[in-house]
Write a structure and sequence with these properties.
about 900 residues, alpha+beta, 5 domains, six-stranded mixed sheet, five-stranded antiparallel sheet, about 30% helix, about 15% strand, elongated, Hypp4666 protein, HMGXB3_CxC4
Length: about 900
Amino acid sequence: MEGRKLVKPKTPRAKFSFMRGRDHNRRTPSQKRSRDSTGSDARGKRQRLNFETTSTSVSDPMATYKMSLRTEGEIFEVRLQDGVKVWVIRDWNGNRLKEGKYVVVEKMGTSFTSVAGSTHTFWICSCREASGQQHRLLETSKKVTEDFDEFICREEGDYCIHCRMISSFEEDPDVGPGHDDDEVEEEDEIEENSGTDVHFVRADPLLALTSGDGGRAVVGTTRRQRHLHCLTCDYAVRSCRHVTACREWLRSEGIDEPIDVGGETPTPLPSAKSWQTIPYPLPDDLRELQQEYDSGLVAVPENLVPGIPDSHCPNNCAWDTSDPIEKGWSCNETVTVYTEQCSFKHTNADGELKDIKVFYRICTGDCRCMLPYDGQEDLLFNLNNKDLIAYSMLFRYLHLMLEARNPLAAFHRAYQRQVGALGQGDVLPLHKMRLAWDSFSHLLDIDWRTSFKCPVCEQHPDVIICDGTSLGFRKDLITYESSRETQQSSLEIKGSDHKERVFLPIPGSRVFLSQFAGVSQSQKKKGKARRPSALSAQQYRELVSSLSDFPHLASLATLLKRLSRNGSHRIAPDPYKKFLGELAKNGPLCGMLQIDHSPREGHTKEIVHRAVTNALAIFDSVNAAHLQKLRSDAPILADFLFEVYKAEGNRIPEDVSALVKDIMDRVSLPFKDKHDGSVYPPPEEEDTFGGYSFFPNLPLVRGQAKYAKDAQRRPRLRKCRDPSQRCNKMYGGHPSLSPGIFTAFCQHGVCYGFTILKSHESPRHPFEILIGRFNRAPRVIVYDNACRLHQYCLNREPAFFMNTLFCVDRLHWINHTGCSDGYCMDSYGQHGTIDVQQINSQINEQANAGLKRIKAQLAYMTQSKFMFNAALFLAFKNIDKQQQLGISWE
């Protein structure tokens, strides 16, 4: 049968208080003009604030435990089919109720008999502490020959705290759980369980009592863990015999088993009584109320009564419109209100100090669901029906979290000093403040999709500025395991090869051509300054001879021979140096010339072809628009043609024209192969804050494909033959924290999301975001390791990124001595519709610097809390940036 939730009996109240200040003749708030000229009624309209408070402490752990069980409604009496009465209660850790742990208390099946014929039955419990006594009693003879009273006293003295508490209920029903007459009548109408070993206790969160050969246990769900698991066992809590029995019972009753739901289902909220979403910023009426609180014009109402919402209870029953005060629906007789400077338990009602009381409301159905007092109309956050925290204190911590390096523990220490120095009353304990903040922050009315979307770029930004930051949390707290790697397609995608991407595929020839361009491999310095070098006669002959093995290098050989005949066989003339040096690099040719490969009229390749065949006088003033497009799309090539045009008497030599034609043919080779969407598995469902990534407006559009390059990768830390040609990013790391997160911003400074770095930052992280979440690649990608990211993309998805410009941000460009100047942002102007010069490449770095403010407080959170708090911080920063843009979503 269904368990009964126990009603708290009336208990005497402790009455004591202390005055607000030293000056007793001072004008008190109660002497000020009344806010309501009609006075106040017994329902607790707001009165003038009086700071007299009460303070009490409970030294008896049994009394504290009993009070907590009554307040939280976590004690249930279950009558089994055979008439046996069993108690299901939430466990206790010495200070507060344990999260998700319950014990079963009942009387033994047999009694002990004295010599005189007296009988006594002991309580037994399912907890570990009581197991020793239970085994001893089972082995003890039921006929007691020793002094019977001494035997009973000794055994009851060994009771665990659960048995002691239940026995006190049984011995003194006046202070134990009681029931109204109406509740008893309803109980008689409830049907018994139909011969099953599983007994239903509570609906949400689910609680069920299982009975079997292994004893009794409690199975169910909690607010944090929505899957079915054992609330009594310590090990294998999702697969023990109690859970198995409960699953079988659910199937027999036709009830769906509770499961973890992914997708857009929010993470279960921390357990607080307040339930309404909290607007930010506050509306005008609540702001006015806060000002009245601050000025002392009003006080907290005496009776805190929940309103009547338009919605129904979880079982679709209407809420009872009766007066909770008249009905006696009181949650707690002792309520404490905490503000930034004090705490109080009394309020001034009609010039008289009265205790603050919290009431609840029930529904009209048989389910008897309870609607707790929320407190928003009074700017109070209801933590547990006995601790109410002022909105102002929680909002203050929110603002300190956003703007200062202030962890919650530091804020609590400052609050403790504030109360001790300037205020009075009790201090809210840290664990309660932490729970209040977790619940309060989850209730903030934040539209995640709107806050993580730029009003200018909207759904799909054309410019992405991305980078990683060392905002990590404990590695051992990573609980979510992504299944993307196990959902790879069976079809393998082959990207482009290195040999077809570089113009000069011979490593030795690249060294000689680099020296011919005036760059010595052994004399490179940090930065772009290089000391001149030259080829010997033998090296020149070897260079020209090696070019004959590849047809597309014939034009380069012809050019070198002409320059040699003109006396430049050791080092190239100045107009040719930079361009030949670019051709000698190990990077992709399409990185030097990052042009749009879409076939259309006025395309960059068409302009170049017409210019080098003298069909277009590119440097004539009438063709300034064509020259401007060439400079914006291919600045290195445009500068080379202009320098040669001036040096060669306002003409472009035929060997240069042939070389440029070969280059333009080869620059498109990596993009020759394309594939359709059938190579991708379907995208996996994402948990909002339970996974690795948070991109509200960029959901996964395709699954993880299988790439041939991944199978060909050699062991890490492979030593390159030419270290000077490598652009590597150096990483530090924390021994116990995760590497950090990887964020993506648009050019206006709005963050579109982030992902947790499971390993040190690499090009794989931005690649997975771009290929997995974008239907079309962004037009410009700014990244401090863009050269390596471009090569990573060409190895796997060249066609997807063929019209994307990869740029290294300005701060890190000086360190990229080995990559092409085609990755330099300052080389470009108007690239298509995007003005590259106007892009702030440090947007991500600046935002990541702000993330360091919350680094200390996020470092030791669980994964879901880490994801939520990082998203919360970025959401508020995005809202600030959207307001700066001056564009409203409305």
